[in-house]
TrEMBL record:
<dbReference type="GO" id="GO:0016787">
    <property type="term" value="F:hydrolase activity"/>
</dbReference>
<protein>
    <submittedName>
        <fullName>Murein DD-endopeptidase MepM/ murein hydrolase activator NlpD</fullName>
    </submittedName>
</protein>
<keyword id="KW-0472">Membrane</keyword>
<keyword id="KW-0812">Transmembrane</keyword>
<dbReference type="Pfam" id="PF01551">
    <property type="entry name" value="Peptidase_M23"/>
</dbReference>
<feature type="transmembrane region" description="Helical">
    <location>
        <begin position="50"/>
        <end position="72"/>
    </location>
</feature>
<keyword id="KW-0378">Hydrolase</keyword>
<feature type="region of interest" description="Disordered">
    <location>
        <begin position="1"/>
        <end position="51"/>
    </location>
</feature>
<feature type="region of interest" description="Disordered">
    <location>
        <begin position="170"/>
        <end position="190"/>
    </location>
</feature>
<dbReference type="InterPro" id="IPR050570">
    <property type="entry name" value="Cell_wall_metabolism_enzyme"/>
</dbReference>
<feature type="region of interest" description="Disordered">
    <location>
        <begin position="95"/>
        <end position="116"/>
    </location>
</feature>
<dbReference type="InterPro" id="IPR016047">
    <property type="entry name" value="M23ase_b-sheet_dom"/>
</dbReference>
<feature type="domain" description="M23ase beta-sheet core">
    <location>
        <begin position="240"/>
        <end position="335"/>
    </location>
</feature>
<dbReference type="InterPro" id="IPR011055">
    <property type="entry name" value="Dup_hybrid_motif"/>
</dbReference>
<keyword id="KW-1133">Transmembrane helix</keyword>
<feature type="compositionally biased region" description="Low complexity">
    <location>
        <begin position="171"/>
        <end position="182"/>
    </location>
</feature>
């Protein structure tokens, strides 16, 4: 019949005797048990800030280099023998039958196994074919050289960009200066051209007036201009002066301004003795207040021919030649401007 009494406890090998006939039991410590009091509360881990991307890349490269160097160091260490229990060793396959393993066995070669396996040394891990051709055998040094080469390339690229920017700025400045100089030269050339054109126009006008002056003549000599066209006053019935007055001694010759035909010659009220000369273009020239007339109607005259004498007939205050210019439609114009337009100096 089963008993509810507990089975007798086997003596523990960890039970030791102590003074006073007391025994203390030592239990084996199991690190997998939750024998450590859990850490309570929140623990903040300060984040590292301000780490540049380039520093991160360099750190990874350094870690890789150190790892490769460690591998190389581990290869140079002497082999350590590992012993296994017979029960496990008997169940393992023959090491020489495994491909590529026989090379690691003492006294054996891969040629004996019939399998050709090329095992690269650990120190060449991560070395490119180009670096291997250059004689690189250490992965750490190769990576370091690669990082330095990349840094030099970046520096060279930055220097090239700065150089290109300086050259571009210099080119833009030179182009702006050239444009400014070109604009200045064009402005100076335009000013010279304008001055030359003005001078040529003035010369042409002078030549034209000189040619006209050769075919036109001042109506009298030894004169003084006393009244001009449009001058206002009560002396004239129209309220203003309609011609140009040449004050001169009585009997001074009156000349034909230009060649033409005498339209009329006779006494004409307030104008006194008046001669009307019609030019080829239809312009009429009136010579008034003459003391005498030397031509008759229908007579043709040439430039400078004497057609009469200065006098004081009609409505006058003294001897003078009253000269009027009328266009073909009968409109009166300023005689002074008209005469000067023909190249005459009045």
């Amino acid at each position: 019949m089963a008993s509810n009494q507990p089975a007798p406890e086997a003596p523990s090998p960890f039970r030791t005797g102590m003074a006073g006939d007391e025994e203390r039991t030592w239990e084996e410590w199991n690190p997998t048990e939750e024998s450590i009091r859990p850490v309570r509360g929140r623990h903040r881990v300060a984040k590292q800030r301000g780490l540049a991307r380039s520093s991160t890349v360099l750190g990874v490269g350094v870690i890789a280099a150190v790892g490769a160097g460690g591998m190389a160091t581990a290869q140079s260490k002497p082999p350590v023998s590992i012993s296994l229990p017979d029960s496990i060793a008997d169940s393992l396959p023959d090491a020489k039958s495994l491909p590529g393993v026989s090379a690691f066995m003492s006294g054996g070669s891969e040629a004996d196994t019939g399998t050709t396996t090329q095992a690269a040394p650990l120190t060449t891990a991560g070395i490119t074919s180009a670096e291997a051709e250059q004689g690189a055998t250490d992965a750490g040094e190769a990576l370091r050289a690669r990082i330095l080469q990349q840094a030099e390339q970046q520096q060279a690229g930055a220097a090239a960009e700065a150089r290109a920017a300086e050259e571009k700025a210099a080119a833009e400045q030179a182009a702006a200066q050239a444009t400014k100089q070109q604009s200045k030269a064009e402005a100076e050339a335009a000013a010279k051209k304008k001055a030359a054109e003005k001078k040529a126009a003035e010369k042409a006008e002078a030549e034209r007036l000189a040619k006209l002056a050769a075919s036109y003549a001042v109506p009298t000599s030894s004169y003084t201009i006393t009244s001009t066209f449009g001058q206002a006053g009560s002396l004239w019935s129209s309220g203003y002066h309609t011609g140009l007055d040449f004050a001169a001694p009585t009997g001074t010759p009156v000349k034909a301004v230009h060649s033409g035909t005498v339209k009329s010659a006779g006494y004409s009220g307030s104008y006194g003795y008046r001669t009307v000369l019609v030019l080829d273009d239809g312009t009429e020239i009136w010579y008034c207040h003459q003391s005498s007339m030397d031509v008759t109607a229908g007579q043709k005259v040439s430039t400078g021919d004497t057609i009469g004498r200065v006098g004081a007939t009609g409505n006058v205050t003294g001897p003078h030649l009253h000269l009027e210019i009328h266009t073909p439609d009968g409109t009166g114009v300023d005689p002074l401007s008209w005469l000067r337009g023909k190249g005459l100096t009045i």
